[in-house]
Specification:
The protein has a 6-stranded mixed beta sheet with strand order 2-5-1-6-7-8. A two-stranded antiparallel ribbon has the order 3-4. The termini are far apart. It contains 7 helices and 8 strands. A hairpin with a 7-residue loop joins strand 7 and strand 8. It has one domain: P-loop containing nucleotide triphosphate hydrolases (Rossmann fold, 3-Layer(aba) Sandwich), CATH 3.40.50. It is globular. The protein has about 240 residues and is α/β, with parallel strands linked by helices. Helix 1 packs across helix 2 and helix 4 packs across helix 7.
């Protein structure tokens, strides 16, 4: 509970009296959406500042578009999310003081959705949870990035449990996990190459005892736990 309060304090101190855009970044299965929900439930108890939540999962591209170039790690990393729609429906109107639309696609049914717009208050903090968030072309950047991290030996079994996958697939190096683990390794490598580092890091390895860590620029982003072993040239080339 104390760590949750500490994270809340950091979030509420971001751009006071203005709208703030905070990304909750991290791999599948690390606990991003749960953390966002916990923070939003806690907020009314300690502050009158509004916290809203949106997930990048509501901005998947259609199944045909996601798999048009295959089902490998590169296609997931490059093709899974509709960043232009996210910018048009969430980021741009939020920055401009207008209402936002929280989703455009239901990934399970692969159907377009049309939720009611949401009108945030003037000083709302919008928490966006998802993967590869530092690749989203947010104008002027995110106000803050909270990295939720745990090693793949922890996150892969956690994620697989949601889909009732067999225990033998819990090994991060199992072929069944190549698409998702490989994409995280690409992301980790790209961030280290760009010198991008999160504002805050929450180690969520033990869900009962999460820990706030100090970002270490000299660590080269390896706190994510998905450090790429090979050079970028070893990955599949992007097609024209």
């Amino acid at each position: 509970m104390q760590v949750l309060l500490d994270v809340m304090g950091l979030i509420l101190a971001t751009r006071p009296r203005e709208r703030a855009l905070i990304g909750i970044d991290g791999p599948d299965g690390v606990g991003k959406s749960t953390l966002s929900a916990e923070l939003r439930a806690l907020a009314p108890l300690i502050s009158d500042r509004e916290l809203l939540g949106v997930s990048i999962d509501g901005f998947h591209r259609t199944r045909a578009a996601r798999y048009a170039r295959g089902r490998d790690a590169a296609s997931y990393y490059r093709d899974a999310y509709d960043h232009p729609a996210f910018m048009a429906k969430v980021v741009e109107p939020f920055r401009a003081g207008r209402e936002i639309v929280p989703a455009v696609l239901d990934v399970a049914s692969d159907q377009r959705v049309y939720p009611d717009p949401i009108e945030p208050a003037e000083d709302t903090v919008l928490l966006v949870d998802g993967v590869f968030l530092e690749n989203v072309p947010v104008p002027m950047g995110w106000d803050r990035i909270l990295l939720v991290t745990a090693p793949p030996e922890v996150t892969v079994p956690r994620g697989n449990a949601r889909f009732l996958r067999p225990p033998e697939e819990d090994d991060p190096d199992h072929p069944a996990n190549a698409r998702y683990v490989g994409a995280q390794r690409m992301y980790d490598y790209d961030l280290r190459l760009r010198g991008s580092f999160p504002t805050w890091i929450l180690d969520n390895t033990d869900l009962d005892r999460p820990r706030l860590l100090e970002p270490d620029d000299e660590a080269g982003g390896t706190t994510r736990g998905y450090s790429a072993d090979g050079p970028h040239a070893d990955w599949p080339d992007e097609e024209d």
